[in-house]
């Protein structure tokens, strides 16, 4: 995949690319939105820990399809308030740290999720040969 961040645009606000080109012939995995709840139904109170669960779930889903974080082309994330952005972004950066590349990214502030204790939801689009 090729990162697309033209120098004629303002640089991204954080560690992401403005766009990502997926070459022809790649398989795609689109995950459902993952919430910060673990396999034992525990929901940590803070955004970072919830986001780490989200990315852990995403890693498992990608692994089931023979992919990893290195194959992520785009991340969409949703938080319930600006105060949760830093925790989410720290977890996102940790998830992508070993890949040596940047995905495109969207981060939205939403009014809430199915249960009030959820503060983060994350989904990804991944592509691999």
UniProtKB/TrEMBL annotation:
Taxonomic path: Bacteria, Pseudomonadati, Pseudomonadota, Alphaproteobacteria, Rhodobacterales
Pfam families: Ribonuc_L-PSP
Gene3D superfamilies to which the protein is assigned, alphabetical: RutC-like
Domain of life of the native organism: Bacteria
Signal peptide: none
The name this protein goes by in its record: Enamine deaminase RidA (YjgF/YER057c/UK114 family)
InterPro entries for this protein: RutC-like_sf, YjgF/YER057c/UK114
């Amino acid at each position: 995949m090729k990162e697309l961040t033209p120098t004629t645009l303002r640089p991204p606000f954080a560690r992401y690319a403005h766009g990502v080109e997926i070459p022809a012939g790649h398989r795609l995995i689109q995950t459902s939105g993952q919430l910060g709840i673990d396999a034992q139904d525990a929901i940590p109170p803070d955004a970072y820990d919830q986001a780490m669960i989200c990315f852990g779930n995403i890693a498992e889903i990608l692994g089931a399809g023979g992919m990893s974080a290195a194959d992520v082309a785009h991340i969409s994330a949703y938080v319930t308030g600006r105060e949760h952005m830093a925790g989410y972004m720290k977890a996102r950066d940790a998830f992508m740290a070993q890949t040596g590349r940047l995905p495109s990214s969207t981060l939205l502030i939403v009014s809430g999720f199915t249960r009030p204790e959820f503060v983060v939801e994350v989904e990804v689009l991944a592509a691999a040969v």
